[in-house]
Amino acid sequence: MSVLSEAEQAFLDGPVEQLCAMIDDWDITHRRLDLPPEIWEFQKQNRFFGMIIPQRYGGLEFSANGHSSVVTKISSRSISAGVTVMVPNSLGPAELLLHYGSEAQKDYYLPRLADGREIPCFALTGPDAGSDAGAIPDSGVVCMGRHEGRQVLGLRLNWEKRYITLGPVATVLGLAFKVFDPDGLLGGEEELGITCALIPAETTGISIGNRHFPLNSAFQNGPNSGKDVFIPMDFIIGDQANIGNGWRMLVESLSVGRGISLPALGVAAGKSCARNTGAYAYLRKQFNTSIGKFEGVEEALASIGGMTYMMEAGRQLTLSALDNGEKPSIITAILKCYNTEHMRQVINHAMDVHGGRGICMGPSNYLARAYQSIPVAITVEGANILTRSMIIFGQGAIRCHPYLVSEMEAATMPESAAADIAFDQALRGHAEYFLTNYCRAFIYGISASHLAPSPYPGRIGDYYRRLGQMSAAFAVCADLVLMILGGSFKRKEKLSGRFADALAYMFYASAALKKFEADGQPRTDLPLLEWTAKYCLYQVQMALGEILRNFPIKWLGVIIRHSIFPLGLSLRLPNDSLGHRVASLLIRPGAARDRLTDGIYITDDPDDITGCLEDALPKVIRAEPIERRLRHEQLQQHGLEDYSQWVARLKTDAQVSCDEADILLQAREATMKVVRVDDFTPQQLLNEAAETVKSTPPSSAVRAKSVGKKIAAKKAVKKKSVSKKSVSKKSVKKKAVVKKSATPG
Ligand SMILES: Cc1cc2nc3c(=O)[nH]c(=O)nc-3n(C[C@H](O)[C@H](O)[C@H](O)COP(=O)(O)OP(=O)(O)OC[C@H]3O[C@@H](n4cnc5c(N)ncnc54)[C@H](O)[C@@H]3O)c2cc1C
């Protein structure tokens, strides 16, 4: 598994930790509807927007793992702040420039993007083209036009985009559009295809600055449009030679970025829910018992724990592949789709466990904004329904199949002896492959996977064996369905979606086994691994079962079902006792809980939104033996005052020592902070939404300001003079950073 470098770890422990301490999500999402100026400035100064940019251009040059870890930690504090950092580092101008930009473009833009002088966005989606992004109607017509006082060859652009993250504050727009050359100025075809360009936001003809309001998230997002905007050819990423290459560029970049940013949001949600909900379930007592000990709540906690382990395992395995230079587009699509889907599930469980505490919004609610943001993560970078039912298996199957591609290639070769040989070879290989899988699936099935190979003995070995069985069964089903349906398979999205499920859960089960091994097989993590493995294997089995029940040829489906699952669909979900063991890990401090939630922001500041949980948990655990001894006493449940009087009486009666009285009081005080919910006067409620922090800033904003000042002072001392390399005026127009809205920075 990929390991963080020293510089990445130092960044996480330093600037990221500082940034998280500065964040007050309620201030951001309710009062200000933007990040405070101090945070914008802090992010720019510390190059949060340049994580993927090489150091020679002034960026941080982080690995995929480093980048994802930063996004995870920030998002555990605020989704709005996480998304703001995510976008410039994800699919967008920097990523495209790095791979496809001209040297002049890189030299000019990358240093400016790294230090936040330029704020980028990338605009592909429009009112008429969402999931079907290839259908964008936005156009660029090749023509002559005036640029910097001279007549040059360029493009006249017209576009209408929406949902563009960072769009309202962007100083440079990455834009996708289709190029047309009706007058034949380039001497080729009229329609030249999707093309990407970088355009300074203040270019004449561009309208930008309005905002959407995506489910109370405060990251900047909005529409933009352009009317007869003229750009010279060298605004095209990679210059004129890259006309028509835009779609390939986007798809290639997406196959990496999709595995980093949004899956990290899922992991951040999982880890935060696991840690905070576990603690809350211990601290919140009803019927004189921690609610986390009731079986109903345990079920929810077990799912949170297991799914978090699963998402993190998937994240780690994918990042290792990316950091090894792979571009596993199907795996990254799986990770995006299923991590965000499980994000939905863990947050829903967390909301249920918190009851009213999760519902009543205010500065001390650490769940509600994440809950609201779920559909954002699910929709962007390929909405999940489409990704699941069309992309993962539909597009992945052929690409990953060991023989289909060669069969298709051979079939389209001009008729010749070589073509016949190539086709026969591919067909023979395919037939052998199918028969081997069929036999494996039958033997593994009839032996309840005991005859499948495994690198380990015992219970862990069983999971490897079951995975072998499921993978053989999957291969049989997939091959048959593709053979039967051929080209019409792409319309069978329900089948394709179930194949995607099977593939995804096999991936997660493998990732969990790999993670357990990479972590050194810690015994305390065994319940998490087992829960994940059982849950995933069950999902694979059920997906395959549903495929066979809906097989394109019904009778064949029945035969295959009896051949590959001769003992029936015998796998079960994690049982109650395993669920109990997982839930127990979450509600009390321990090594497994720490490992599971490693990488999120954690503080034990009792006045912090989640710090109060960290503060209270050990205090309450310390007070328990004393409370148990006093069980016969009438415990005072009402308010701190009543409780204090009760403790004072016990002290007077010599039933508790002074130290014990302190322990009881501290625990009580800390618990009350945890269960407290916010309330507002009707007037406050009316005013709060309209307030823009013009009068008294909230205490955290004051904190943020002082941190910002300290950092600015430090920077002033260290200020280096940065030589500004200007690129040829002809190629890239220099721009001052101009804000288009009331945005700081
Ligand atoms: C907050 C936010 C930020 C965004 N940021 C950016 C950005 O920075 N830049 C940018 O260019 N875009 C951005 N987007 C756009 C995002 O990528 C699109 O919203 C997404 O591609 C889906 O398009 P749509 O919303 O128009 O939904 P539609 O395309 O209308 O789809 C609606 C539903 O139909 C499903 N669907 C569509 N076609 C199929 C199919 N063939 N099979 C099965 N299901 C299908 C989808 O999965 C979805 O569930 C952002 C969107 C949001 C909401």
How big is the Rg?
Answer: 29 Å
Quickly give the structural class. Answer: alpha+beta
What is the tally of helical segments?
Answer: 28
Low-confidence stretches: 692-705, 718-745
Q: Name every ligand kind in the structure.
A: flavin-adenine dinucleotide
Distance between the termini: 37 Å
Number of E-state strands: 9
Query: What is the overall shape?
Result: flat
Overall pLDDT, averaged? 91
In which range does the helix fraction lie?
55-70%
Largest sheet: 7 strands, mixed
Strand content: 5-15%
What features would you highlight for this structure?
28 helices, two-stranded antiparallel sheet, seven-stranded mixed beta sheet, 745 residues, binds flavin-adenine dinucleotide, alpha+beta
Description:
- The chain is an alpha+beta fold.
- The protein is 57% helix and 9% strand.
- Strands 1, 2, 3, 4, 5, 6 and 7 form a seven-stranded mixed sheet that branches.
- The site of flavin-adenine dinucleotide has 21 residues, from strand 1, strand 3, helix 13 and helix 14.
Explain the layout of strands and helices.
Blueprint: H1 6-22, H2 25-32, H3 37-45, H4 64-75, H5 79-89, H6 93-100, H7 103-114, E1 120-123, E2 139-147, E3 150-165, E4 172-180, E5 191-200, E6 206-208, E7 221-232, H8 246-257, H9 261-283, E8 285-286, E9 289-290, H10 295-323, H11 329-354, H12 356-359, H13 368-379, H14 384-392, H15 396-400, H16 404-412, H17 417-446, H18 458-485, H19 493-518, H20 526-549, H21 554-564, H22 576-587, H23 591-596, H24 611-629, H25 639-652, H26 658-675, H27 682-690, H28 699-718
Parallel strand pairs: 1-4, 2-4
Antiparallel strand pairs: 2-3, 3-7, 4-5, 6-7, 8-9
